[in-house]
Here is the input.
Amino acid sequence: MEGDYDVIVLGTGLTECILSGLLSIDGKKVLHIDKQDYYGGESASLNLTQLYSKFKPSKPYSDQFGKDRDWCVDLIPKFLMSNGELTNILVHTDVTRYMEFKQISGSYVYRGGRIAKVPSNQTEAISSPLMGFFEKRRMKNFLEFIIKYKEDEVSTHGGVDLDKITMDELYNKYGLERGTKDFIGHAMALWSNDDYLSQPARETYDRIVLYLGSVARYGKSPYIYPLYGLGELPQGFARLSAIYGGTFMLDTPIEEVLYEDGKFAGVKTKEGVAKAPVVIADPTYFPEKVRSTGQKVIRAMCILDHPIPNTSDADSAQIIIPQNQVGRKNDIYIATISSAHNICARGYYLAIISTIIETDKPHLELEPAFKVIGATKDVLMGIAELYEPIEDGSKDHIYISRSYDPSSHFESTTDDVKDIYKRVTGHDLVLKKRATVEEEAELAGLS
Amino acid sequence: MSKQTSVKLVLLGEAAVGKSSLVLRFVSNDFQENKEPTIGAAFLTQRCTIGTKTIKFEIWDTAGQERFANLAPLYYRNAQAALVVYDVTKPASFIKARHWVKELHEQASKNIVIALVGNKYDLVVDPETGEEIEGRRSVSVEEGKALADEEGLLFFETSAKSAFNVNEVFTAIGKQIPEETSKPQDEPSSVGRIDLNAPVDESGGAGNCAC
Here is the structure.
């Protein structure tokens, strides 16, 4: 590993691995190091031995839930929006070759003490218990406005300027009830609190469009998920990077960060010194260069031996408990997956509950979610503080990623990827279609 | 048309034992002297007809990720066949081969077909007579066979350079692949897989391709 590189990447979390892959494709010579002996960092999926040693060190896993290797438990529960930017990056880089995806069966929302499916088509919408008859008509009018809206056709704007009108005003224009606003804002636009109501409607509009486009793509829900867990994603992008010449070293702690004139110059490890003018790292590699966002996330990984009640025995689902349904400021999310996605032993289900902590008794804040999921076989809990870089990297050439937020999808992660990419390279990320298998064979002199 | 089954085959072995060269020989009957370490092409396919069945090998190269023992679990995932390659003139590469076999037993699916391959056979034989030259090889045929017998592996000595035994390795693997296990389609988890690369018919403003 000794020598000169264009970029050193520290940490094999998803953000770092996507950047590593993109930069290798660009022809940059990348050295990618992780202090841990597995891929994925904070965005890894762990087996139960790893999981128990991290969250219940006093109680090692002893095969009570089947074979250890059948389990891949995500440390950060998220799903991919099927029309989202991560899907777009996966397709353009052809990392889809290395993994397989399935739909998440349904998206549910908590309303008045119970959960109901977020309608994914007209038939479901008509029979949905979420709204009364007249409200359904108002909702339909609202959605028609969203679908028909075209930026360059003023006639479709219904007399509103999305950059000026607030989202609450837009809702009111369609006479929507409070519960419907909750439903649209939290279960479709996927906002985790109500701050968006007083913001211009534009971003919520974009989010609803993303949601509707994602549902329309495969049908059951807006979400897709990789077989064997989210930890496959960083591994897939790491492979992409390696194929384009990236060098990978796991289990390699950084002994010293080298500087020249106050700028990053390289790293020293047990294998020697590697030099590069630029480093990309997750927050754990530069604790002095990040600050807390002030938010802490609690995540509870629950092992179940049954599907979640009232989901028609769904093998996977996203359940959102909107904040004001349970007197909170932040939504509670439940992500459930099962052996249908090859992440646990047959007969088991995994439910991961997460929210932003609001009190000094965070485990009690999850109570409404525990009621939704029913009996658990075991629960492992962890609290994570969220970090962000203090500086943008222009001074010292140290570009640090943000912690993975509690949102239910990867849109903020890919925003961070694009932002760091631009700061590192000086230009916007333009995704080019990677060569096909046949073209690559030709490249290798095989045709 | 005969039945076609897809088989994911992974390559394992120390750097520079000729993993990519074996594939190059198999896929295009070619050999490149002093081939650079693998970059840019690590996913090759080749069809191989055995009797009435056609096997499409999807061959995964290590992309250099073996150098620091950093192959990801993703690499082994659902592999139905593996080539564990060593260099018959490099004893260290044979020790490494043992390690890879162990790794495969731990990480890969239970019924994976593994072939142990001692490559660079051309280095130990006289090109004129085809006879072995004494003192050239460091790993004996017996050592290779013993490991293969112990672990239940197919065993071949090959030369990617002269093409010796290369096709035979893949044919032997193809014969060993049980028809029903090639891609476990009837496993419940195979229901509902989606193809992200399939063209999407959409007219909404949701497409955000920056191109």
About this structure: Chain A touches chain B through 63 residues (CB under 8 Å). The longest helix of chain A spans residues 202-218. The longest strand of chain A covers residues 290-304.
